């Protein structure tokens, strides 16, 4: 074999490999495929494994068999009691007919443009039947099942099976949320003022009660002190009387000395004068003053 023949064989082998590779494709278990010829669908394949196609003139596009998610943009909808709510929903779907899916919507973006309005329309209709207070009750699950069934029936023409429709967020519009927040803030401020006023009122009552108890306790203490003082004065008088009865002269002398001590305080009083008078009758004097009485 000459060199030219060898090169030709190599080229033919490369061409054969390229043709072989171009004529085979693999479908995984989570995929389904659609064979196109010049952009036109020729065959839908859902079985996994190795498959063949015409090289160069046919190509393959793949679709998921798994559960897919379709997110919708938030939309504002009215409830039965004329309250506006912002609803953000999503749908779970499966592509069951890749040929119909490709012919009608082409891809997921096209499906969102077709199925999204259907979901929003059904949501708007069902939400308009219930008041806002029932949006988070058990009735919500009931009308979501109704919406899922209605959307699934409408989406069959696109080659998909909608298995679930859910609301992932239900909220008030921003302006309503701000108004409710301000109203709640005002209510909390009013409640705080009421509690402070009640606290001040209770504080005044407690303080008044404490003042009253103080007055009562002081009055009782003064009364008891007066009683005890009277009893003490009476006992002192009795002791003085007993002492006077035992030795009147000495008692007279003792009381005179007490009166003299109190009358002539040595700290700031000085007496200047003759030792005459009633206080000095107990002291002997050259002028003939009386002598103190003898002790008994």
Identify the notable features of this structure and list them briefly.
296 residues; alpha+beta; 4-stranded antiparallel sheet; 3-stranded antiparallel sheet; 6 helices; rod-shaped; disordered C terminus
Can you walk through the features of this model?
The chain is an alpha+beta fold. It is 52% helix and 20% strand. The strands form three sheets. Strands 6, 7, 8 and 9 form a four-stranded antiparallel β-sheet that branches. Strands 3-2-5 form a three-stranded antiparallel β-sheet, covered by helices on one side. The protein has a two-stranded antiparallel sheet with strand order 1-4. The longest helix is centred in the last third of the chain and has 73 residues, at 174-246. The termini are far apart. Mean pLDDT is 83; it is low at 285-296.
Structural class: alpha+beta
Number of strands: 9
Quaternary state of this entry equals: single chain
Mean pLDDT: 83
Q: How do the helices and strands line up, and which of them pair or pack?
A:
Layout: H1 3-22, E1 24-27, E2 31-37, E3 40-45, E4 49-52, E5 58-64, E6 68-71, E7 75-78, E8 84-95, H2 98-104, H3 108-127, H4 138-155, E9 160-171, H5 174-246, H6 248-263
Antiparallel strand pairs: 1-4, 2-3, 2-5, 6-8, 7-8, 8-9
Helix pairs in contact: 3-4, 5-6
